Amino acid sequence: MSDGLKAFLLKHSFKNDKAMALRIWETVKLMIFGFFLCVDAFLYVFTLLPLRVLLALLRLLTLPCCGFSGSRLLQPAQVCDVLKGLILVLCFSMMHYVDYSMMYHMIRGQSVIKLYIIYNMLEVADRLFSSFGQDILDALYWTATEPKERKRDSIGVIPHFFMAVFYVFLHAILIMVQASTLNVAFNSHNKSLLTIMMSNNFVEIKGSVFKKFEKNNLFQMSNSGKIFSPP
């Protein structure tokens, strides 16, 4: 092989390696951004949301003193904050009645194949719940904040609210069962379940990597993977 051909191949190999490194770095930056975005959304529920609910309640308490002007007691954003706070408190209270130890031992007593099937079913159910749950919460917020000509129209918020509470409660139980299944897989002496779960994830990654996506679809998929709306 001549020196010119070696130099040509080395040059193009360096360009390909550099392009691959840049793509990997961009992917890592996207993952880091998504991680901090998820942390921000998680901390919002326990830091900013209680403060916003407190400000909304203070507005309600100070309305008789300051005088009421306008057609709304609260702004639409404040109404959504109060609803989020109520859903969080109610679901937190309801989760106290769930026996996690019994759930863990029931899952632990199942065979490896059953646990693998249960875990896959939980993943599918989680995606379905996330899809329908966002619509339920959006319907609740829209029903609560849309302009109403009559006061009796506000009654429609009640069924939407209870439906949202029921959804968040069921989704929380689903996540707890999924976490208990992973806990059993990690703490079990038989590591075959953990191996099967990891191989299943690699199969999903392989299907996503070797599938062609348009730029718009890839952008939407990246956003849906790293952004979620807190209940």
From TrEMBL:
Q: Name one GO biological process term.
A: cartilage development
Q: Which domain of life is it from?
A: Eukaryota
Q: How does it sit in the membrane?
A: Multi-pass membrane protein
Q: Does the keyword Transcription regulation apply?
A: no
**Can you list the GO cellular component terms from the UniProt entry?**
ciliary basal body; endoplasmic reticulum membrane
Q: Does the keyword Repeat apply?
A: no
Per UniProt, the keywords (alphabetical) are: Chondrogenesis, Membrane, Osteogenesis, Transmembrane, Transmembrane helix
TM helices/strands, residue ranges = 30-51, 82-98, 157-177
Compartment annotation: Membrane
The entry's family comment says: Belongs to the TAPT1 family.
Write down what this protein is called.
Answer: Transmembrane anterior posterior transformation 1a
Task: Tell me what organism the protein belongs to.
Answer: Amphiprion ocellaris
